[in-house]
Amino acid sequence: MSEGAAAWLDFEKPIVDIEQKIATLESVQKKSGVDMSEEIAKLREECAQKKREVFAKLTAWQQVQLARHPFRPEATDYIPLIFEDFAELHGDKSFGDDKAITTGLCRIGGRRVMLVAHCKGKTTKERMARNFGSPHPEGHRKALEKMKLAEKFRLPVITLVNTPGAYPGIGAEERGQAAIIARNLFEMSRLKTPIISIVIGEGGSGGALGICIADRLSMLEHAYLSVISPEGCAAILWRDSAKAPLAAELLRLTAPDLLHLGVINEIILEPLGGAHRDTQAAANLLKAALVRYLEELEGERLERLLEKRYDKYRKIGVFLEEESAKLAVTDEAKARP
Amino acid sequence: MAFEKIKKILRRKKELPGGLWMKCPDCGNMIYKKDVENRKMVCPDCAYHFSIAPQERVDLMLDPGTWTRLWSNLAPVDALRFEGITSYRQKMAAAQKETGEKDAIWAGTGRIEGRPVVFGVTDSRFMMGSMGSVLGEGVTRMFEYGLQRRLPVLLISGSGGGARMYEGCLSLMQMAKTSAAIARFSDAGGLYISVLTNPTMAGVMASFASLGDVMIAEPKALIGFTGPRVIEQTIRQELPKGFQTSEFLLDHGFVDMVVPRERLRQEVARLLDYLG
Questions:
Q1: By CA distance, what is B91's nearest residue in A?
Q2: Do the Cβ atoms of B166 and B132 come closer than 8 Å?
Q3: Band of the pLDDT at A337, cuts 50, 70, 90?
């Protein structure tokens, strides 16, 4: 946590303040030998209480801020804590090696799997190299290449989603950003091996969707998944991206919203205060869910698996099937208060 | 320069009354409306292709009297209770009033030179042709219907909006749903011809519009993933001329052919002959 105090979110500050008090007392106790355990215990209780208070009523925007938290663990943090013997495989075999997506073979709970994960990077230098987790077309193609390899050898695929979105740039358009995302959706919908996708941080629109067509799609508690960034939505609605917090409410992008809408299977809980408070605990919870999904899916016959995957996406959507094709003049807008 | 500008303004003033003339948004010339209409809404000076309504597409592409519209009873729902500066309900109602349509898709069956096809066209007048649950469901049903009856699918896309923001992730997931339906259709040997018109962007281009066995674009259409304004803001530089046009896509290998509107029907018929 080298980025300093500036990186803490406003609503985390009361918690951090208490934590600092605890740290001070602990160091004083250590140096002076005076017993302060009673005070410390009291502060610890106060801290836990504050956390529960703050995290019981998070707004959609606060969830987005947590998903983007500079301290939030990302794939490179989780890989050594969840998987064993990671053999990274680079490149899309036709243009380049997009570091915004990491792919490779590894083991989890005694099983061999193919891992596909967005990576944002931890240091400034690494973030530049990984383009802040925004893939170019070659990144999406690299993901598809490795998933096809997994299909050939019947290895389950695990994807960890954490991207602000597919990169908007000249090269990205020249190399067919839209076409390759479409290709991924097409291929993943019928990939002959189980696919598990977890949104661990940001789920930015088409860039997220490009690797999350899956038999199990779940979200960490403080992740988000959205059709457009709150800033983009605000710019369209109010011509003012500063209204992003309002847009975040409208878009229904939090894990509970998406569970309710039938888009995701499950919410994977994080330690109180968010995954960045205790990366090991977050990794344990994530690993437990992954192993459970693998167990559930490995018993499934392939045809049945693909049938269910199709049905899952086939069902998503809300519309009316009216008796008449004629347009009933809908002045609903007027009728509403 | 200034003189030229004044001359232009004077000319425009002289010619506008009567509604006989219109301005081409591409070359900027004043063009005679009748001329444009005779060319199926194409600028006679620069070949810019104006957007046309679904009925005009049907008339243009299908054998007379063969069109049967299906699933026109599908209507959108404000599942998210999206209440922004204008609510989804208001937006929806305004678009419905303006177009007389429930949503942004026409789908059904018809014949092209006697060959039966499943035919669909997205309506770019309805909330910029954006894909919500209705459009996603309509496209999905087209491919399921085509699979059942062993019919080729011709889908003409035009959408500046991509996935419809007002339906949140429900619309994002329509990208997955339509692509999955196309994969099934394709695995069963179905032929899908995708025609891209001005504009086809974002979530629509990043799903069903890109998945044709044969990809055709009308000339000079804006086609891509991210809108040009957003790209400019991100990279802080001006975009090259002709960026994200049909011709740009042809050069970069993402469409099979660029076909002017007046030859579109004939070209599709030929492809149906070869592949259908």
A1: A333
A2: yes
A3: very low
Which residues of chain A make contact with B70, given a CB cutoff of 8 A? Answer: none
The single-letter code of the amino acid at A192 is K
Q: The tokens 């067919």 sit on which residue?
A: A176
State the DSSP code for B112.
Answer: E
pTM: 0.92
CA distance A105 to A125: 26
pLDDT > 90 in chain B, percent? 78
Helices A177-188, A137-152: axis angle to 10 degrees equals: 20
Pick the CATH number of B51-275 from 1.20.1260.10, 1.10.3720.10, 3.30.450.40, 3.90.226.10: 3.90.226.10
**Those residues with Cβ within 8 angstroms of residue B199's Cβ, 6 or more apart along the chain or in another chain:** B124, B158, B159, B160, B221, B222, B223
Which contiguous run of DSSP H or E holds residue B233? Answer: helix B228-235
Domain ranges of chain B: 21-49, 51-275
What number is the average pLDDT over the span A261-265? 95
CA distance A177 to B221: 17
Q: Which helix (H) or strand (E) holds B31?
A: strand B30-32
ipTM score assigned to the predicted complex: 0.92
- On chain A, the residues whose CB falls within 8 A of the CB of B83 are 250
Contact B165 A227 (CB under 8 A): yes
Q: Please answer whether residues B76 and A319 qualify as being in contact, where contact means their C-beta atoms are separated by less than 8 angstroms.
A: yes
Q: Exposed, middle or buried, B111 (CB in 10 Å: 0-12/13-18/19+)?
A: middle
Domain ranges across chain A: 5-57, 65-300
Residues A164 and A84: their CA atoms lie apart, in Å, by: 28
Phi and psi (nearest 5°) for A80? -70, -20
Question: Looking at A121-125, A330-334, B145-149, B272-276, which range is the least confident one?
Answer: A330-334
**Dihedral sign for Cα atoms in the order B158, B161, B164, B166:** negative
What is chain A's alpha carbon radius of gyration, rounded to the nearest angstrom? 22
From A81, A109, A144, A105, select the one nearest A298 (Cα to Cα).
A109
Torsion of CA B1, B2, B5, B7, to 10 degrees: -100
Give me the pLDDT at residue A327, please.
64
Count of residues in chain B: 276
Return d(Cα B210, Cα A262) in angstroms, integer.
Answer: 26
Helices A37-56 and A13-32, packing angle to 10 deg: 170
CB distance A323–B211 less than 8 Å? no
Q: Is residue B264 within 8 Å of B61, Cβ to Cβ? A: yes
Q: Which of A292, A293, A282, A269 is nearest to A75 (CA)?
A: A282
Q: Does the beta-carbon distance from A189 to B137 stay under 8 Å?
A: no
What would the pLDDT profile of B180-192 be if each residue is shown by its tens digit?
Answer: 999 999 999 999 9
Please give the Cα distance from A189 to B50 (Å, whole number): 35
CATH class entry, domain A65-300:
alpha beta
Size of interface A-B (CB pairs under 8 A): 219
